[in-house]
Structure formats: structure tokens, C-alpha cells
Specification:
Elements (H helix, E strand, L loop, with lengths): L7 H44 L5 H30 L2
Helix pairs in contact: 1-2
């Protein structure tokens, strides 16, 4: 079987893709940390409103939306990790 040398253009394109995916992972990690903080803040707000006897329906609806957003972010992060692991 003949030995083939890697195509420089393909190698460059692969490096660019890997760098871009790593950048996406860093960004996803930062956004997830921010959303986790926001969810925790909203949980505190809901509990504070509840303790003061206020209606919490809207605050709870917002919290649920924020939690779904966080979960979607986690799925996106997982997709990036899977893409990177498959590229090895």
C-alpha cells in the first residue's frame, strides 16, 4: 500500500475547524456559567416573592424558560464536545 502525504489544504482546513470548535466550546462554557448564575438568581427571586406573599406565577414561568434555555445550552455544549471527540 503506497504511503500518502496529507494534503496541506485539508490539514489547514482541519486546523481552522478545530480552532473554531474550540472557540465555540469556550463561548458555550462561558454562556452556561452565566445562565447558571441567572437561574440561581431567579430562584432566589421566586423564593423571596413567595416569602413576601406575592404571586409568583410570572416569576416561575420565567424561571422555567430560563431553565429550558440552560438545558439547550448544555445540549449545544455536548454537541461541540462530541464533534471534537469524533475529530481525533
Amino acid at each position: 500500500m503506497p504511503i500518502t502525504t496529507p494534503d496541506p489544504e485539508q490539514a489547514h482546513a482541519r486546523r481552522v475547524w478545530l480552532e473554531r470548535e474550540h472557540e465555540h466550546l469556550v463561548q458555550a462554557n462561558q454562556l452556561l456559567a452565566d445562565w447558571k448564575r441567572r437561574v440561581l438568581d431567579q430562584m432566589i427571586i421566586v423564593e423571596d416573592l413567595r416569602a413576601k406573599g406575592y404571586d409568583t406565577a410570572l416569576a416561575e414561568a420565567l424561571l422555567e424558560t430560563m431553565q429550558r434555555t440552560l438545558e439547550e445550552g448544555r445540549r449545544h455544549q455536548q454537541l461541540i464536545l462530541e464533534a471534537l471527540s469524533l475529530s481525533r
